[in-house]
Amino acid sequence: MSLTQYLGLPFAQHALLAAALVAVACGLIGPFVITRGMAFAVHGTSELAFTGAAAGLLLANNAIAGALVGAVVVGGLIGAMGVRERERDSSIGVILAAGMGLGVLLLSFYHGFATEATNILFGDIFGVSGGQLLLLGVIAVGVTVAMTALYRPLLFASVDPEVAVARGVPVRLLGIVFLFILAFTVTEAAQVVGTLLVLSLAITPAAAAHRLADSPLVVAALAVVFALISADGGLLASFESSSVKPSVFVVAISFAIYLVARVAGPWVKSSRRGVAPDGGDTAAGEVTA
Predict the structure, then answer these.
(1) From CA 93, how far away is CA 264, in angstroms rounded?
(2) Which phi and psi angles does 281 have, rounded to 5°?
(3) Domain ranges (residues) in the chain
(4) Are the C-beta atoms of 161 and 171 separated by less than 8 Å?
(5) What is the 3-state secondary structure (H, E, C) of the chain?
């Protein structure tokens, strides 16, 4: 089947739209994840979405709703236990270990088909229904509105928390709110690439954007663009190779973008400043030559 024929099918259209919604949300939170040093929080929250999915299947036969509730609970626990930055990683490690064990236990009591829960781990973008697409859209809009409203104070609290506290910014409250936003976004992304690969959309595009720009707004815009290219590009590539899962292409594209940004970053930034990558003055070098 050709790519054009695939694009005419409802499931492919749903998949592309779902991937775009996830990419926008991940692109918006990614720069703050990098700035606040919360990569492990993304990993922990995404892994524990599986625990919520298992509970959702067991209690209400709804893995997605369970994953969302579980991610929010985990976000609250991380915020409560990891008040200080140096305590956060150890708190996440403790919660992650306990949560994964609980997830396996809950799944052992479920006697139906557990594919919905395991799909949270590995992703099932081609199985997105109309109802799930609507939920993804609501989450994406909610994340966009929240990040727009919190952008300035959250950026201040992320870049210089001590000065932000002195200026009266509620740094701790902002951190907890951001954890909840992160939880929703990560659970949303898990439906596309799975919790095991969610870092490829929530972190890698933003890490690449940071290599190419210094302005927070430019970094955010680039992160969204890179996430969109990775998510929908990975899907389009998977249509041409049905034997390889879309998540493999999504990860490969996002990593390739990061490698290019890492190599080109010094030249891109230095060209804007008029300084050569080796520290010399570009204009002076051209005159001398």
Answers:
(1) 35
(2) -85, 120
(3) 3-288
(4) yes
(5) CCHHHHHCCHHHHHHHHHHHHHHHHHHHHHHHHHHCCCHHHHHHHHHHHHHHHHHHHHHHCCHHHHHHHHHHHHHHHHHHHCCCHHHHHHHHHHHHHHHHHHHHHHHHHCCCCCHHHHHHHHCCHHHCCHHHHHHHHHHHHHHHHHHHHHHHHHHHHHHCHHHHHHCCCCHHHHHHHHHHHHHHHHHHHHHHHCHHHCHHHHCHHHHHHHHHCCCHHHHHHHHHHHHHHHHHHHHHHHHHCCCCCHHHHHHHHHHHHHHHHHHHHHHHHHHHHCECCCCCEHHHHHHHC
Contact partners, residue 100, CB within 8 Å, separation at least 6: 47, 48, 50, 51
Tell whether domain 3-288 is in CATH 1.20.1050.10. Answer: no
In the predicted structure, residue 35 carries a pLDDT above the cut 80: yes
Q: Which of 188, 182, 163 is nearest to 19 (CA)?
A: 188
Q: Could you read off the pLDDT of 77-108 as tens digits, one per residue? A: 877 775 566 667 777 788 888 888 888 888 78
d(CA 88, CA 176): 12
27 vs 107, residue with greater confidence: 27
Cα–Cα nearest to 44, from 244, 186, 250? 186
Q: What is the mean pLDDT of residues 151-176?
A: 89
Sequence letter at residue 119? N
What separation, in Å, do the N-terminal and C-terminal C-alpha atoms of the chain show?
56
